[in-house]
Each structure stands twice: as structure tokens, then as C-alpha cells.
Design a protein that fits this description.
eight-stranded antiparallel barrel, 38% helix, single chain, 264 residues, Alpha-Beta Plaits, alpha+beta
């Protein structure tokens, strides 16, 4: 895709010109191979309530997504990490990939059957005075052209890092996506930074933003690979290009452990 066309269609999808982001998400501007993602975040006040949501995801959602051939589904807990927000220590995140936007729209209807309702009884019948969670926030994203499909590059013991790059306007957000597509993802690959997904957020909180996830065997691997990235000559060149100046206004990073039943 030519740079001007990428920015034009990307701005349309972001809603910057008054168009529906969902409607544009269904249009095939970026090729038919790019996935879509939902990242759902349960805000949970206590460890007891976290266990309720975990049981719902493990016993109701996971069997149901297997039945409808959806996945792999990633479920993540806040890791014991000094940079994590203590207010989120009991929260749960779930990442779901979709082959197309329509699969996202039809997901909930397909999930719900008698077995799902029975398995989700504790979660769905929580009382108003004693809810299982405080709120749910959700983001709907389109995969980058530079990484159109989710990968699971490391298995076994691992730690995940979710990184959200916020921008001060839609154009700068699209330019940051372009920066990744035109070289930054390649530098990640060259320096051992192993990515799970990259997504341009179409709908969700704190837009405009992009979100991506990295995975490491341990914190030492993270430190070594980020140092290699920062010292890479191609990164030094890209970060000083005038076109990419001021593309990111805020970075939010979270560190996750995978839930025992997570498929990612």
C-alpha cells in the first residue's frame, strides 16, 4: 500500500473524518490476511473476585471458544512487577484473535448455549450488591500489515509485556503504525524482541493509540534485547526521521503472567 493511501484509509478507519470505525473495519483496505483482536480487561477489586472471573473464563469461555473454533485465547494476570499498577493487581485481561471483523460481531451469539450458561452460573448470577468485577473495558484492534497474524514465539515459563502507545492526534497515531510497518518491526526481529501481536486500536479507551505485546523468557532477556534494539543503527536512523517526530505522547506498559489455562 502506498504511504498516502495508508494514511488516508487509516484516518477513515480511526473515525477522524467522521466515519464509523466499525464500518470501516469491515472494508478490506489492508488485505484479507490481517486479523482483528479484542483485548478485554476486567477491573477486579479482590483476589476472591478474581477467582470467580478465572473460573468463568476457564470453565465456560474456554470450552465454548473451542466449540466454535475460535482462538488461541490469551488470558493474563498482573505480574508481580515494580512497574505494574498496584490498583490492577487482581485484574484479568483476555486477548481474542478474529479472522475478520464479522467473527467479532457474531462471537457472543455463537458462544452462548445451555452448557455455557450452566458453566457461567456463578459469574452471570452475581448479585448487584456483590458483583464479580467493577467494570470491563474493551479494545477492538486491527493487526498491522507488518505482522498480520498473532504468534506464540515462546512457550514454557515466560513473562508478557503489553505496551500501549498513545498519540496526541489521529495522524501521529497512523504515522507510528507506519513506522512499525516500515522498519521498526524488522528491528524488533533482528534484536530478539519477540512479539505476539501488533494492533491499531479502532475502538476503545484512550484512542488514538496502538497496542502490542512482547514475550520474554525472563527479565534478563528483556533487558538484553531492549538494549540491543536501542543500539541498533536502523533504530537510530528511524527515530531521528522528521516524519516520525512526536508520534507518541504517552507509553503505558504492563507486565503479565499467563493464566494456567491460557492458550497463549
Amino acid at each position: 500500500m502506498q504511504r498516502r493511501d495508508f494514511l488516508k484509509t487509516g484516518l477513515a478507519a480511526s473515525g477522524a473524518v467522521g466515519l464509523s470505525a466499525v464500518g470501516q473495519a469491515q472494508a478490506d483496505h489492508h488485505g484479507g490476511d490481517s486479523e482483528y483482536y479484542e483485548l478485554r480487561h476486567w477491573h477486579i477489586p479482590t483476589a476472591e473476585k478474581k477467582a470467580v472471573v478465572d473460573r468463568f473464563l476457564k470453565n465456560a469461555v474456554m470450552p465454548a471458544v473451542k466449540r466454535i473454533n475460535l482462538g488461541p485465547i490469551g488470558v493474563f494476570h498482573s505480574a508481580d512487577h515494580p512497574k505494574n499498577n498496584k490498583a490492577e493487581q487482581h485484574d484479568i485481561w483476555a486477548l481474542t484473535p478474529f479472522k475478520n471483523a464479522q467473527d467479532f460481531f457474531s462471537r457472543d451469539e455463537k458462544l452462548v448455549d445451555d452448557a455455557f450458561i450452566e458453566s457461567a452460573n456463578e459469574y452471570l448470577n452475581s448479585q448487584k450488591t456483590d458483583p464479580a468485577y467493577t467494570r470491563i473495558t474493551s479494545s477492538f484492534m486491527r493487526a498491522f500489515d507488518g505482522k498480520p497474524k498473532l504468534e506464540i514465539p515462546i512457550k514454557g515459563k515466560r513473562i508478557f509485556e503489553l505496551r500501549e502507545y498513545q498519540s496526541h492526534n489521529e495522524l501521529k497515531a497512523l504515522l507510528k503504525v507506519q513506522m512499525f510497518n516500515e522498519g521498526e518491526i524488522d528491528i524488533f526481529n533482528a534484536t530478539g524482541l519477540k512479539s505476539v501481536f501488533f494492533g491499531q486500536t479502532l475502538i476503545g479507551p484512550d484512542i488514538p493509540n496502538l497496542t502490542y505485546m512482547l514475550v520474554y523468557e525472563d527479565q534478563a532477556m528483556r533487558g538484553n534485547n531492549w538494549q540491543a534494539f536501542l543500539k541498533h543503527p536502523d533504530w537510530d536512523r528511524m527515530k531521528n526521521m522528521e516524519i516520525y517526530k512526536d508520534t507518541v505522547s504517552k507509553i503505558v506498559a504492563r507486565f503479565f503472567d499467563p493464566a494456567p489455562y491460557s492458550q497463549i
